[in-house]
Every structure is written in structure tokens, then in C-alpha cells.
Amino acid sequence: MSLIERRPVAALAWIVWSLGALLYAYGFFLRIAPSVMVRDLMQAFSASAVILGNLSAFYFYAYGSLQLPFGVLLDRWGARRILTVSALVAAAGSVLFGVATTIEIAYAGRLLIGTGVAVALIGTMKLIMVWHPPGRFATVAGMTTFIGTMGALLGQAPLAAMVEAFGWRATQQWAGVFGVLLAIATWVLVRDYVGAPPPVAAPQISMRRALGRVLATPQTWVLATYSALLGGSIIAFAGLWGVPYAMVAYGLERPAAAALMSVVFIGFALGAPAAGFLSDRLGRRKAPIYIGPALNLATWAVILGLPQLPSALLYSVLFLNGAGSGFVMVVFALGREHNVPEYGGTVVGFINAFGMGSVAILQPLTGYFLDLQWHGAFLDGVRAYSASDYRTAFLLFPACTSISFMMSFFARETYNRQVVLA
């Protein structure tokens, strides 16, 4: 292929990837949106902390449970059709959530959102496998996390300002409109292969065979557990409970508290591509695997051990907390190299299922621990928790990270090579 022929292919590779990454950002935005609506949602649905945790977790129930089926379907059918339909489903869920009049309808809306965006990350990873060389995989995967986390940032301070101005219902409905536009762009521009379509249809991949091979690989379980406990903790914290904690512990208004939690996501957004780049450049996968949870644990000790932090230190520690969690993205490269390449979507789906499943457990579990600490206080008709209540409940997060750090010693180095070929 001549240089002139390669350039359009390279440009299309980045366009295709960017649309998948944009759907991931859209899903991240919808994922953490309840964190800036905590009081609004408690008032709208007369919800306790446990109920609110469940409302947020319904997203993860769908998201986590669909990772494996979607992973296999991506290996069989490609990403274009699945990503397009998924964006439409997420858009419908956002609108339904915005118009919900009962907690049951709100649950259904969050369930649809989780269903729609469940394929976003693994679909984008599949597109990276098709459109980008193996030596660039960890770097582009990290860039995907960076783009996705930009959605999380929009779901913090900017969304908080929109909620203050227009209300939480209107913002959710407009988010649904964006999902429809994204679905149209995905259908028009995304392609499942480089160049002309294959002259003969690819053989159908058996879901049973794909799952059997992936689940029979011990490293898959090690990496999935590591990912679940490191990545799940940060989403449970910054994605739901961090904003109300910052409002109570530091006396911040909602937009300022959301901006503070945005620092965690900025750290995550920069930590992921940095870890991917470091891994690709060193020709090693395990160094970032060690660094991530160690950095995360050190920052949890400061956050929970010191009740009041100076502003500069608080922002720095939260940034490093997110950056350490961002190193989790290297496990996708490691998981791919420990499994058959044709089952790449299934591998990513399984690892991501563990991660999202852990959030579905950790968010309501944190709410449960908060309710255990509650002493009967109300503020504007909503249960009020003290900063000490939050810190006690948050001990769950460094406990999970500690186990993640222990799992890193069981991960096997691949030296950035595909160690399982068939």
C-alpha cells in the first residue's frame, strides 16, 4: 500500500476510534450524573441512602451483566450495528429517567442507560484491535479512558451548573437528544474492517467456546479481580458519594463540590494514557500494575486519616488518587495477550463485567454503611450524614484497593507479546 493510500486509512482509523470513545464518554457522563443530583433525587423519590445507591447501581446491574454477551457479539458481528443500537437505547433510558414520576420508573430508566452504554468500552477496544497495530494498543486504550473521563468531568461541575439552572429532569432529556445524534454519526462513519469487506463471511464464533476458553485462563480471573477492586472503588467514591461528602466535610456548595470531585476524574483521565504509554514504551505490563494500587492506597490514607486538608494538598491528593486508579487500564492489554486474539472482545467484556459489577455492589453497600452511622438527623426532609459518617463508610475503598494490590503479584508478565496464539 502506498503512502497516499495509507493516509486515508490512518485518518479513518482515528475517526472510527473517536466515535467509539465518544460513546464511552457519553456513558461515563450518564454513569456519574446522579452524584450531582443526590439531594434532588432524594427529594423527588423520598429516597434513603440505600435507595439512592440502588438507583445509581441499576446502571451497573445492566452494564456489568451484559459485558460478556456483548463481548462475544462484538467478536461475531463487529461494532458498527451494536454501537449504533446501543446509543439509541441509552438515549431512550436518559429520557425515561428524566420524566420518571416513581422510583420504579427511575430504576427502569437507569437500567436502560446501563444497557445502552454497556458495549461502549469493549466496542471501542474491539475497534482499536481492528484499526490500530498491537504495539499501540495500551496507548490508545489509555486515550480512550482519557476521552471517557472527559464525559465524567462534564457530569460533575458543568452538569451541576446545568442542574441548578434548568433542573435535573431537563438535563437528562437533553442528554437523550445527544445520544440520538451520536447513534446517527456512528452508523454513518464506523466500519468493522479495514479496506474492502472480506470476500467470505468470517466463521461464526461460538459463545460457549469463547467463554470456555476465556474463563479457563487463570490470568483472566486475576486481572478481572484486580480491575474490579481498583477501578470499582474510585467510581463508587467520585461517581456518587464524593460530592455530598465534600459538601459536608468542607462546607462547599454543590457546583464547588462537583468541581472538587472532577479532580479525581482528571487524575484518572491522565493516569490511564500515561500508564498505557509507559507500558508500551518499557515493553512491560507489570510495572503499572504495581504502581496503580500502591499510589491509590497512599492517597486513601491521607484522605481518610486527616479530617481537614489544606486546599492545595486536598486537590493534589485527589488528583493522585484518580491517577493511581487510571493505571487499571493496562489490564486490558495484559488480558488480551493472555488469551486467544479472536476472543479479544470476550476478554475485555469479562474484565469490564467484574469492574462494573463491583460498582453495583459498592455504591449501595456504601449507602448501607452510611445508614448504619445515621443518628436520625434530617435536613430539608433528607437524611443528613456527618463527615465522620462518610469517612467510616469510605474505609470500604482502601480495603478493596489493598486486595487489588495483592492480586498484582499474581499477574504474569507478557513483555507486550501475545503469549497465547491459538
What does the model show?
The protein is mainly alpha-helical. The chain has one domain: Growth Hormone, Chain: A (Up-down Bundle). The protein is built from 19 helices and 2 strands. It has helices at residues 3-32, 38-45, 49-65, 67-77, 80-99, 103-117, 120-131, 137-154, 157-166, 168-189, 207-215, 218-250, 254-282, 286-305, 311-326, 330-337, 344-373, 387-394, 396-408, and strands at residues 378-379, 382-383. A hairpin with a 2-residue loop joins strand 1 (378-379) and strand 2 (382-383). It starts with a helix and ends in a 14-residue tail after the last helix. Mean pLDDT is 86; it is low at 1-7.
Q: If strands are numbered along the chain, what order do they take across the biggest sheet?
A: 1-2
CATH topology term: Growth Hormone, Chain: A
What is the straight-line distance between the termini? 29 Å
Provide the domain count.
Answer: 1
CATH superfamily name?
A: MFS general substrate transporter like domains
**Rg estimate, integer Å:** 21 Å
Given helix and strand content, the structural type is mainly alpha
Short characterization:
With 422 residues, this protein is mainly alpha-helical.
Keywords:
Growth Hormone, Chain: A, disordered N terminus, mainly alpha, 422 residues, two-stranded antiparallel ribbon, 19 helices, globular
List the topology elements:
Elements: H1 3-32, H2 38-45, H3 49-65, H4 67-77, H5 80-99, H6 103-117, H7 120-131, H8 137-154, H9 157-166, H10 168-189, H11 207-215, H12 218-250, H13 254-282, H14 286-305, H15 311-326, H16 330-337, H17 344-373, E1 378-379, E2 382-383, H18 387-394, H19 396-408
Antiparallel strand pairs: 1-2
Helix pairs in contact: 1-5, 1-6, 1-7, 1-8, 1-10, 3-6, 3-17, 4-17, 5-6, 5-10, 7-8, 7-17, 8-13, 9-10, 9-13, 12-13, 12-16, 12-17, 12-18, 12-19, 13-15, 14-15, 14-19, 16-17, 17-18
